[in-house]
Design goal:
Blueprint (H helix, E strand, L loop, with lengths): L7 E3 L5 E3 L3 E2 L10 H13 L4 E3 L8 H9 L8 E6 L6 H15 L4 E6 L7 H13 L3 E7 L3 H8 L7 E7 L11 H7 L4 E4 L7 H7 L2 H10 L3 H10 L4 E3 L6 H10 L6 H10 L13
Parallel strand pairs: 3-4, 4-5, 5-6, 6-7, 7-8, 8-9, 9-10
Antiparallel strand pairs: 1-2
Helix pairs in contact: 1-2, 1-10, 3-4, 8-9, 8-11, 9-10
Pfam families: Aldo_ket_red
Protein name: Aldo/keto reductase
InterPro entries: AKR, NAD(P)_OxRdtase_dom_sf, NADP_OxRdtase_dom
């Protein structure tokens, strides 16, 4: 993976990954957008954002196919993250789902394979299945998504639980609940958190975040967009990876430039006043 001086984060397994990657939610759903999406992911890779996050759920496999096309001929530059549905998380289901994902991605391995969220299948069975796939070389590392501290404590105590390499959760300036308990625990145990929806999803929540006067003021001081400041706020934190989605070249370049923004103590104070850190435990935010 080319770094282009990109900050890296160390997973629990000891492998390094870029602190800024690319998301693919909503990709692979419109054939007219396919080449634009492929091009955007390839540009991101050129700029050092070789970590690409996807899932069998995204476009029911369509996003994985877009990723497969984007990494064709340059697999070694990519770090592929994909996720298995909870209803496919039993021993046989995980294997079958992984094989389907590998086929759509046109690769022989998934770098990090996550349980998308908790379902009815016992965690111990999913972890067993992940370890079997890891031994066969079909996945390199495995992890979880949308796990709160209680889930992590439960998983960590199971056979194979200490091999969980990362946890992907909703985390951004407007959704800071994990700072109370999950983020400190994760840092203590060398467990990176991958922040999805780092700029919120489309709609009122995104507009409320990016239109915040304090965020806009900080952006003005730096000559940046509010989105770049929101990303820079995440990227300055130890053990956090941000995976914003971008489907056009200008947006991809803006995201990459956010990794070079250095926020001052004055900036951070302004942002804390506008987006207060948690003062008590909160339920895990999910989308």
């Amino acid at each position: 993976m080319g770094s282009c001086d990109m900050k890296t984060v160390t997973m629990r397994s000891g492998r390094l990954i870029p602190a800024l990657g690319q998301g693919t939610w909503n990709m692979g759903e419109d054939p007219a957008r396919r080449q634009h999406e492929i091009g955007a992911l390839q540009l991101g890779m050129d700029l050092g954002m070789g970590l690409i996050d996807t899932a069998e759920m995204y476009g029911e496999g369509g996003a994985e196919e877009v990723v497969g096309a984007a990494i064709a001929g340059r697999r070694e530059q990519a770090f592929i993250v994909s996720k298995v549905y909870p209803h496919n998380a039993d021993k046989r289901g995980v294997r079958a789902a992984c094989e389907r994902s590998l086929q759509r991605l046109a690769t022989d391995r998934i770098d990090l394979y996550l349980l998308h969220w908790r379902g009815a299948v016992p965690l111990s069975e999913t972890l067993d299945a992940f370890q079997a796939l890891q031994k066969e070389g079909k996945i390199v590392d495995f992890g979880v998504s949308n796990f709160d501290l209680g889930d992590m404590l439960e998983a960590d105590a199971l056979p194979g639980g200490r091999a969980i390499a990362a946890n992907q959760v909703l985390f951004n300036l407007a959704k800071r609940g994990i700072e109370w308990d999950l983020l400190p625990w994760s840092r203590k145990h060398g467990m990176p958190l991958m922040a999805y929806s780092p700029l919120e999803s489309a709609g009122p929540e995104r507009e409320l975040l990016l239109g915040n006067p304090s965020l806009m003021a900080v952006a003005g001081r730096h000559g940046c967009t509010p989105g770049q400041i929101a990303l820079a706020w995440l990227l300055r934190q130890d053990g956090v990876v941000a995976i914003p989605k971008a489907a056009d070249p200008a947006h991809v370049r803006q995201n990459r430039a956010a990794a070079d923004v250095v926020l001052s103590a004055f900036d951070l104070e302004d942002l804390d006043r506008a987006f207060a850190p948690p003062t008590k435990r909160q339920a895990l935010a999910m989308r």
